[in-house]
Design a protein that fits this description.
The protein is α+β, with helices and mostly antiparallel strands. It is 17% helix and 37% strand. The protein contains 1 helix and 5 strands, in the order βββββα.
């Protein structure tokens, strides 16, 4: 399931990131909603991207935009 909630467990260049929707600063070591998107590159490697959100409302707003093709 691509929707996650909790602390980010991957590798990151910084401890703080901005919410994809509203720009609120998030601490990756605190629980927050996330969406993990995996794709396969041209050379056949799995590429994963994690989107971070400050609230469930921002996650749902982003999903609606994504599902509608915005």
């Amino acid at each position: 399931m691509p929707e996650l909630y909790g602390e980010f467990e991957g590798e990151a260049d910084a401890q703080f990131v901005a919410c994809v929707v509203c720009g609120t600063t998030l601490d990756l070591f605190e629980s927050h909603p996330m969406f993990r998107d995996e794709d396969v590159s041209e050379v056949g490697e799995v590429v994963a991207r994690t989107y971070h959100f400050c609230s469930d409302d921002c996650l749902q707003q982003w999903r609606r935009g994504r599902d509608s093709g915005e």
